[in-house]
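User: Show me a protein chain along with its predicted structure.
Assistant: Here is one chain, sequence first, then C-alpha cells.
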Amino acid sequence: MLRDRAFAEACDGVAEHVTVHTDYTGEEGARATRRLLSSPARPTAIVYDIMAVAGLSAAQDLRLDVPGDLSIVAWDDSPLSRVVRPPLTALRRDIPAYGAHAARRLLALVAGEEPGPYEDEVARLTPRASTAPPPRREGSPS
C-alpha cells in the first residue's frame, strides 16, 4: 500500500493513473496488460514491477508498437530488461546494498538496539528503447 500511495502522489497533477494488482505471475501480468490495453481509455504508458516482460509480450500480441503506442517501464532492472526487444527502460537499485542494510537493521533489533529511521539510496531511471513521448490523441492540442 505504501508503494501505491507513493505512485499516486507522484502522478498527482501530472497524469491519470490506475493501479492493478495481480499475483506476480507472467500469465496474470499479461492478462492485466491485455485488460488495460483493451479498455476504451487505453493508457499510453505502464509501469510494471517484475512483470514488465510479460506486459511487453502482451502489448506485442495486441500488435501495439512499443514505444510508439505504449511506453513500458520496469520497476526493477534485470538482465531480461536489457535482452528483450525493445530493451526496457527500468529503475535501477542496488539490491544487494538494500539487503545488507535490512540485515544490519534486523541484527540491531535482535541485539535490543533502536535502529532509528533510514532512507536508502533513491532508484535511478535507466532509459532504454521502450519509452517515448505519448502519442497524440484525437482532439488533443498539438
